[in-house]
Amino acid sequence: MLKEQSFLYKNFSEYYKKNEITEPPMPERREFGIGEYGKKITQRHLSFSGSREFNDFLQKTAPFYVSYSAAFYEKPAARPMSAKQLLGADIVYEFDADDIKTECKKDHDSWVCPKCGSSGKGSVAACTECGSPAKIEQWFCNSCLGEAKKQVFKLTEFLENDLGFSDGIKINFSGSAGYHIHLRSKKIHSLKQSARIELLDYLTATKIDFHSLGFAEEGRLLHFPKKENFAWAKRLASGLKKMIEESDSEKIAAIAGMQHSRVKAFLQNKKTILGHMDKGILFAYPGKKNREFWFSLLEHVLSTQKLDIDRQTSIDLNKIIRVPDTIHGSTGLVAKTIPMDCLQGFKPFADALAFEKTPSIKVLINSAPKFSLGSESFGPFENTQTELPLHAAIYLVAKQAARLV
Amino acid sequence: MILPRLQFAQRYPFSEQAKLVLREHNISLDALSEEVISRAGAMVLSAAKNKPYFLVLNSKEFLLQEILAYPLAKIFVSLQKDNLLCERFARMQGNSFQKYLDSEKNKQETATEIAKQLGVKFDFLGSQYFVSVSLPDFLGAKPGADSQKLVNQQVSKGIVYLTEQRFYAFLAELVSARIFDSLPVNIEGIPKRIEDLGKQLNQQLREREKKAFEFAISGKINPSLFPECMQSLYSDLLAGKNVPHLGRFYIAAFLNGIGMPKEQLISVFRKTPNFDERMTRYQIDRVVNQKLSAPGCEKVREAQLCMNSECRTKHPLSYYKRELRTKTRQEAKKNA
To answer: What is the CA radius of gyration of chain B?
Structure first.
């Protein structure tokens, strides 16, 4: 075992000795998987008789990653998957900061081309020199994790107001790149896969049909949902109305791809446009581009409201996901459970720390951008030998950005 | 027995009324008449051909034959061990339900009766919406059209508000989903006569399938005519690239669908970086033996494997068929 691995193992084991893991519910019905240094899942189909056996296992083996199945089974350890006998399943939605485009990526991410050796700051799909797939070094900060958090708030609004799933929502920090939202109510457990796809399509507005939602076309006439509306129809209608009320002609012209002067002239009729909306009609944009104008605005409203959710995690019944409150082996941070009323103030790099500052540890840091843990900031580092507080040393060693000296 | 009662049971063979008729007649599988057997076979064949099954009957004798034939048709479907056939049979019943309902004079009354029997919790509304249905009930149906998807409904606090037309379409989808869930039925201990008839039917279905795909089976498989999504998966596998699990499953089902022999199919996977012959054989066996259906474009897109959304097809198999037909025609012209 590498020096770094045993260092992490010793500390992770200490964590599990001091902290009893009470997640997930019904542990005896779940399949578990564990991972090693640098590999998130190396073993699956594990099962435990209950929470006690699970905690004993964590203390003894201190795995670098611990995942559990959203599904629960009659025989969780059986193989193949069909022999497990599915009894039901939670739904888990996952929001990762790496899926969201943020400005801060330019500061903390970097890439290197394994083919030609070129490198640079930021996140790119392909090498800017030779076009080969680039290897990305990802880091996360409060800013990009804050964007992921916004999506969590949006999701809870959808879940409670639209879908009526206010019970059994459990949120946790993933321990690294984002947040996981577990839906564990009885209503959810028995849903078939097709129903799970429907829910996901609802949240991501996949196959949304403006016509079906009241924005019907009748020749040149475009309808606007005027009567009592809910859900997407309401969101789209009020979003569109708000744009007209604000009448930012430059913004609207850019979104619709129309000439600014024309849009400005059109918006002079703001009162008439809003009046028509109340009557259930979209006031015609002059010329031949009526449909294009209104549908571009609708598409824009849609893009600001829909959620960007990892499809695979939420519909794959066989998927396993990090156990809340266990340690994420790539950061040494806890996949911390967050009560809904604490989500707004949750600071991942302060509230999800698993380790103390002491003792100090000597490390050789290969490369790391500036990062914060607790109330302190560290770095940036480039081939630096230094002494760091325990939690910062664990963070960098787990990220494989530093070695012990 | 009163004619309308029999008509209701024939039109809605999954209903309590139909079950009651069956109980009243209590005919064992051994004693079913040739006519009933033939009607059951016709139902299965219609499903296999994706054809509608809609009969307006006024003869008590014929009505009874149809009612008795329905459970037998489910046994025949189950004997085929063919998931696609189960799907088609269920869809056909859903479509028939909608047609029968449309032809009813008292549509609302019938729909209410059926909805209650299906255990749907709903309330009639006097407003712009016809009914409200609880979300878990609504999710029990698999939408056939985009307009029936949850994203295109009015939904608030876990209640879905439906217009009259959408409510009926939802019920049809629910009928289809429930019938699909009820398949396969338990076929343990069924009489040998029925089992043999099932085998005969199997032969007929296979003949049909064979004909439908003979263009592929008789000719050499031509990957240049695959749609882009399948072409890409196929060439990635041959190039030894690591194709994701779902991609592997889809290309296997597609290749099986166009008639690639099993051993050849296994060899397609031979160059994959983590090739495990035992595991591959097990998985390909499942695809071939259970005739797991090749994915439609929707599923391909869902898995983010679609390479060209403009390829004007709904199913990679239809695309291949179309291309193959065009090419065969062109070659025939050239040779002429």
So the answer is: 23
Domain region containing A20:
3-96+155-200+310-354
pTM (predicted TM-score)? 0.80
Give the pairing of strands A119-121 and A32-36. unpaired
Are A67 and A175 part of one and the same domain?
yes
- Whole-number Å distance between alpha carbons of A15 and A205: 41
**Residue A150, domain member (yes or no):** no
- Could you say which of A305, A340, A372 is where a domain stops? A305
A51 plus A177 within the same structural domain = yes
Any idea where the domains of chain B sit in the sequence?
Answer: 3-181, 220-335
Task: Tell me the HSE value of A294 on the side-chain side, using a 13 A CA sphere.
Answer: 25
Give the 3-state DSSP-derived string for chain B, with helices as H, strands as E and coil as C: CCHHHHHHHHHCCCCHHHHHHHHHHCCCHHHCCHHHHHHHHHHHHHHHCCCCCCCCCCCHHHHHHHHHHHHHHHHHHHHCCCHHHHHHHHHHHHHHHHHHHHCCCCHHHHHHHHHHHCCCCEEECCCCCCEEEEHHHHCCCCCCCHHHCHHHCEEECCEEEECHHHHHHHHHHHHHHHHHHCCCCCCCCCCHHHHHHHHHHHHHHHHHHHHHHHHHHHCCCCHHHCCHHHHHHHHHHHCCCCCCHHHHHHHHHHHHHCCCCHHHHHHHCCCCCCCCHHHHHHHHHHHHHCCCCCCCHHHHHHCCCCCCCCCCCCCHHHHHHHHHHHHHHHHHHHHC
Nearest CA in chain B to A234: B154
CA distance B157 to A166: 9
Query: Between residues 111 and 130 of chain B, which touch chain A (CB distance below 8 Å)?
Result: 127-128
> Are A396 and A277 in a shared domain?
no
Residue spans of beta strands (DSSP E) within A220-331: 221-223, 281-282, 320-322
User: Is there a single domain that holds both residue A227 and residue A274?
Assistant: yes
Contact call for A202 and B150, based on CB within 8 A: yes
To test the contact with chain A by mutation, choose from B150, B153, B302, B305 the residue with the greatest count of A C-beta atoms within 10 A, namely: B150
Instruction: Confirm or reject contact between B150 and chain A (CB < 8 A).
Output: yes
Q: How confident is the prediction along chain A (405 residues), in pLDDT tens digits per residue?
A: 689 999 999 999 999 999 999 999 999 999 999 999 878 889 999 999 999 999 999 999 999 999 999 999 999 999 888 899 999 999 999 998 887 777 888 888 888 888 888 888 887 777 888 887 778 788 888 888 888 999 999 999 999 999 999 889 999 999 998 999 999 998 899 998 889 999 999 999 999 999 999 999 888 899 999 767 888 999 999 999 999 999 999 999 999 999 999 999 999 999 999 999 999 999 999 988 999 999 999 999 999 999 988 776 777 788 899 999 999 999 999 999 999 999 999 999 999 999 999 899 999 999 899 999 999 999 899 999 999 999 999 999 999 999 999
Residues A168, A283 within the same domain:
no
Is A90 found in the same domain as A176? yes
Q: Choose the closest CB to A198 out of B139, B159, B304.
A: B139
Name chain B contacts of A187, Cβ cutoff 8 Å. 135-136
- A377 and A327 inside one domain: no
Total count of domains within chain A: 4
Answer whether residue A144 is part of any domain.
Answer: no
Judge whether A79 is closer than 8 Å to chain B, CB to CB. Answer: no
